Amino acid sequence: MLFGCQSTQYPKDYEQLGEDERIVIRFSHVVGEDTPKGLAARKFAQLVKDRSNGYVEVQVFPNGFLYKDGEEMEALLQGDVQMIAPATSKVTELIPEWSVIDLPFAFNSYEEVHKYIASPVGKGLSSKFDNHGLLMLGMWDNGFKQISNRDHPILKPADLHNLKIRIMPSEILEKQFISLGAIPQKIDFNTVFTHLEKSDIDGQENTLSNITSKNLHYHQNYLTISDHGYLGYLLLMNKEFWDKLPQSIQILIKDTLKEVSEWEMEQAKKTNGEKLAELEDCQCIDIYRLSDEEKQAWEKDFKPIYDYFTVKYGEKYIKALPKYKE
């Protein structure tokens, strides 16, 4: 999904830029290069370079090379990097209303998420970045989250009782797991493997592409295909930097992001499907799929989380969700 893209043709005045005016965009992210986001970032960088005849260089820094999970946003706000693509959960400390995306079983497909973001409520969420000196240029998909642990199969909410589960920093995610008797642990993504290896935590929630890219399943015995929450990334750019770009470069970036975003969604679907097949073939972890009836039991237990969100942030965000629309 991309915002503000109105043209597929862009003027070529960027060709008049001198070598000393070359534009560099430092793009930091924390996941692996072989994940949907990692692949999309690399594709975006190459296309921008080609289409600008080398005058615009997007330097991609994956795997938290420059900044860790909790450092990226501050680096963007300070202008130390120009672009990041954090998970929606990681922007909730800045804009808490974005935690609506973290609500359990709120969406059933990528398309439902993008339709929500394109709605008036979603556009209102996107515009909130303006007050923080940021510009949201779009959204990339990762997939739907699954739950893994080392102790026992997780088929019903009570199975999470007393398990230490790694989560991303989000109040709603924290309350979800606390409500089920689990002990949520906010841990940097690139250190999860070590914490699992040392048995500091029992399990974690993430997409299949993220789980396999960091080999988290090496220290887990059970995986539940729950699809209980969506994980996507917001394409954010420093607004002051953006405003200084020539209009033709802005159009070039928007056009390229539109193309890459459409490709990335299909890549996310494909990658997560392939990773599930790989895990099934390797027989290195026991895999369980929640049935529709089992999911309904989870949703019932999660109702207080929706009530809490409604009281704190207003019902308009809830009423716009697919499950509440007629």
UniProtKB/TrEMBL annotation:
GO terms for biological process: transmembrane transport. GO terms for cellular component: outer membrane-bounded periplasmic space. InterPro entries: DctP_fam, TRAP_DctP, TRAP_DctP_sf. It holds the Pfam family DctP. Keywords: Signal, Transport. It comes from the Bacteria. Belongs to the bacterial solute-binding protein 7 family. This is C4-dicarboxylate ABC transporter. It comes from Neobacillus mesonae.
